[in-house]
Amino acid sequence: MKRFLYIAIAGLICAVNATGQNVSKSSTSVKVEITKTPDGKFQLLRAGQPYFVKGAGGSVFPDRIAAYGGNSIRTWGSRNGLKVLDSAQKYGLTVLMGLDVSIERHGFNYDDTVVVRKQLDRLRDEILKYRNHPALLAWGIGNELNLRYKNQKVWNAVNDIAKMIHELDPNHPVCTVFAGISKDLVTNIKERCPDLDFLSVNTYGDLAGLPQNIRNTGWTGAYTVICPGRNQQ
Fold first, then answer.
1. Taking Cα atoms as reference points, which of 186, 177, 192 lies closest to residue 213?
2. 11: which DSSP letter?
3. HSE, side-chain direction, 13 A CA sphere, residue 175
């Protein structure tokens, strides 16, 4: 499993983690939202307080992440989701919960409405299962679905998932994670995925240039940055 550092830039916000407290496991869902500050920048709020994500990918070492000052993790799927969320909660972390969405380059056919519907139904069960956990921060629909893809209908499917999540869980924002970003990709997302709350971008060595690259695509919404690092198991 790859370890990723992911940073909540959300349109170049610089919010600080103002809460710092653990949320009791007995608590219900903690509301997370993206708002705009008076100067027009985006800000992530958790329980009404600014929350700047300092995270890592994977759930193997939550104690180390917390010890090094991290406050969040991301996953690539919801397998063992309750265990991951409970572990994160124990160490005062939040979770960008990945949803395992099938990939065209692995043979999935987004022209097949039957299998696309089955995928939506499967993910519905996952949303219902984890939506009220207090450690949940946001949902991530798939990972790098744009890598070597051709069928634009994947974004219609992503939007259907995002729309479903909003209906079932109004307390957590929704993103999808890209392999890089381009103007054509953003154009498709604007047209086909209006229900996404923000974008996430895996960047490989071009962190400094990413904000300008994103502006060049025409994206004016919120986004987060995920920086691949060394492998971990």
1. 186
2. T
3. 28
In this structure, what token pair is assigned to residue 96? 């960008």
pLDDT digits (tens, 9 = 90+) for 96-149: 999 999 999 999 999 999 999 999 999 999 999 999 999 999 999 999 999 999
Q: Dihedral (C-alpha) 104, 154, 74, 22: value to the nearest 10 degrees?
A: -150
Q: What is the dihedral of CA 222, 189, 216, 146, to 10 degrees?
A: 100
User: Structure tokens of 138?
Assistant: 């946001």
Cα 221 from Cα 9, distance rounded (Å):
11
Among 207, 123, 200, 226, smallest CA distance to 169 is for 123
Rounded to whole angstroms, the Cα distance separating 23 from 29 reads 10
Q: Which of 217, 129, 131 is nearest to 180 (CA)?
A: 217
DSSP string, 156-194: HHHHHHHHHHHHH-TTS-EEEEEES--HHHHHHHHHH-T
pTM, rounded to two decimals: 0.87
Residue 31 per-residue DSSP state: P
Which amino acid is present at 37?
T
**Residues across the chain:** 233
Task: Using the structure block, give the residue that is written with the tokens 């960047």.
Answer: 203
